[in-house]
Specification:
Layout lengths: L4 H10 L4 E5 L2 E4 H17 L7 E5 L6 H10 L3 E5 L5 H11 L3 E5 L7 H11 L5 E5 L13 E2 H5 L16 E6 L9 E5 H12 L4 H4 L1 E4 L6 H14 L2 E4 L5 H10 L4 E4 L1 H9 L6 H7 L2 E4 L6 H11 L3 E7 L4 E5 L13 E2 L4 E5 L12 E6 L6 E2 L3 H7 L5 E9 L5 E6 L4 E3 L2 E3 L1 H8 L5 E11 L3 E10 L7 H11 L8 E4 L18
Parallel strand pairs: 1-11, 3-4, 3-5, 4-8, 5-6, 6-7, 10-11, 10-12, 12-13, 13-14, 25-26
Antiparallel strand pairs: 1-2, 8-9, 9-19, 14-15, 15-16, 17-18, 18-20, 20-21, 22-23, 24-25
Helix pairs in contact: 1-2, 1-9, 2-3, 4-5, 7-9, 10-11
């Protein structure tokens, strides 16, 4: 029988007084979080929830997320883990689609009054009968009038609970894909998926490199749940929770808390570099050991700059929700090549297929397919899409990549994102990577639009780094000079910002 909640049980018994979580000026031991998770489980059981039920949690990186997550799993229920930046429309859709019977929700973050919207939305979701608010202090009273708080659920509950086990194929969590090209789909991840990938990733880094983890990547994301929650809980490490990313505050936490590990998308490392003038690099070098990244292409120059200043290289990888996190990674045990997504991790199989489904030799681009114990159970309520994604016993990622002679994975982009401009095949990732090598460019997105004579036209959207300026046409001319003939987009526009999905990826469907 499996359950990642057993990790919390074991670590609380083994190391009860070790600091588990740091949040603002609050510190929580493993014993404290374990008792609170048991009280959540007892409260849910008393309310009639247990195996077969789906219970939703929508919470930012704050302490209450941890006991709620494990409390739900302790009862044998499935945790529907939702993004903390959902619009009211998407929150309503995902609550109804998942048929969640209850919702835990944080109150607000900066100007996002999520809890107030959620209270109204949950009342309209047919299956959702209960709602509990998670304030910054998990034991504080409710901050939303008329809504119960987490403290109300756990009041008077026993601090012991016998954790239920799951079968290998039982759904542990449901996560919704980012929806960058359409409506999100629920991805069913089993206890077998989750526990297997935690164990495979446990062996990828030395313990000294991960003893204090900066939790800046969202814990609702599959990467966050594997690397920022279940792995540190299993190992008894400290999680430094960052609710809202601010470069100066993040640097302070890294230095003062002795952070040894962090993982985020490349753009966040760029922002840290841009705000590092007053950082004590010597102090950071004493503790920071491992910086993982993924979700977008990493410009090699950023990695070189970061390592030169702070001693830790940026280690890119490749993963996805449907594979329960990591597929490949630039492990420090090998040569780190920042312009690649690293090598396939042990325990995972990866192939590159042509359009007929035949394996391609090294150096040839095709669709990336994956086979591993982390491959999802399927898409909730979408049997046809599940069958299409899992055909032949492999997860068909719809991503285009190639393995080089040394086994490093090169990502070119999405198969459905390829743009046919006349007789040229344009891969958005290739163009975006080239643009991000320009010193003025912070981030770039490429999208195809219908064109009356060419079939499609590629358009580029670019944001600039602070204190940099360049004309649209001048940047397009530079790009055209750096690319093979006719590979440049037909249009380029400098914009103040790019629309993002809740996972921090570019929302291409909003570009126009």
């Amino acid at each position: 029988m499996l359950n990642v909640a057993f990790y919390l049980d074991a670590t609380a018994a083994r190391s009860p007084d070790v600091t588990a979580a740091v949040y603002r000026d609050q510190r929580y031991t493993y014993a404290q979080l374990h008792r609170l998770a048991n009280q959540v489980a007892n409260g849910l059981a008393e309310a009639g929830y247990g195996p077969g039920d789906r219970l939703a949690v929508c919470c930012c990186n704050r302490p209450g997320f941890i006991p709620v997550y494990y409390g739900i799993l302790k009862t044998g229920a499935t945790a529907v883990v939702l993004s903390d930046t959902l619009s009211p429309r998407d929150l309503a859709y995902e609550l109804e689609d998942s048929e969640a019977k209850a919702l835990f929700v944080y109150d607000r973050k900066e100007d996002l009054a999520v809890g107030e919207d959620a209270a109204e939305i949950a009342g309209l979701a047919p299956a959702c009968d209960d709602l509990w608010v998670i304030p910054p202090d998990p034991l504080a009273p409710s901050t939303i009038a008329g809504c119960a708080a987490l403290s109300d659920l756990v009041a008077g509950q026993a601090t012991d609970f016998e954790t239920r086990g799951f079968g290998d194929a039982d759904s542990a969590i449901i996560l919704y894909t980012s929806g960058s090209t359409g409506r999100p789909k629920g991805v069913e991840i089993t206890q077998g998926n989750l526990t297997s990938m935690v164990m495979l990733n446990l062996m990828l880094a030395e313990r000294e490199a991960t003893r204090v983890r900066l939790v800046v990547a969202a814990m609702y994301d599959v990467m966050g749940q594997v690397f920022s929650l279940n792995l540190p809980v299993l190992s008894g490490e400290t999680m430094v929770l960052v609710e809202t990313f601010e470069p100066e505050e993040t640097w302070r936490l890294i230095a003062e808390e002795g952070v040894s590990y962090m993982a985020e998308m490349p753009i966040y490392y760029r922002r840290l570099l841009d705000h590092a003038d007053r950082v004590d690099a010597r102090r950071v070098r004493q503790t920071l050991r491992l910086c993982a990244t993924g979700g977008a292409a990493l410009p090699a120059a950023w990695s070189e700059e970061f390592e030169e200043r702070f001693g830790a290289p940026l280690s890119p990888g490749y993963g996805m929700t449907e594979a329960t996190s990591t597929v490949s990674w630039n492990s420090p045990a090998h040569e780190i090549r920042p312009d690649t997504a690293g090598k396939t991790i042990p325990g995972v199989e990866l192939r590159i297929l042509d359009q007929s489904g035949n394996p391609l030799p090294p150096g040839n681009f095709g669709e990336i397919v994956v086979r591993s114990p982390g491959v999802m159970k399927g898409y909730l309520h979408h049997p046809e899409e599940t069958a299409r994604a899992l055909r032949g016993g492999w997860l068909h990622t719809n991503d285009i990549g190639a393995l080089d002679e040394d086994g490093y994975l090169h990502i070119q982009g999405r198969a459905d994102g390829m743009i046919t401009q006349g007789d040229e095949h344009i891969y958005p990732a290739e163009i975006a990577n080239m643009l991000q090598q320009h010193p003025a460019v912070a981030r770039a997105a490429i999208k195809g639009f219908p064109h009356e004579t060419l079939g499609q036209e590629a358009r580029a959207y670019v944001t600039l780094r602070e204190d940099h300026d360049i004309d649209d046409d001048d940047l397009l001319d530079w790009l055209a000079s750096e690319l093979p003939k006719d590979r440049a987009p037909g249009h380029l526009q400098v914009v103040p910002s790019l629309p993002l999905t809740r996972n921090g990826k570019i929302a291409y469907h909003l570009l126009s």
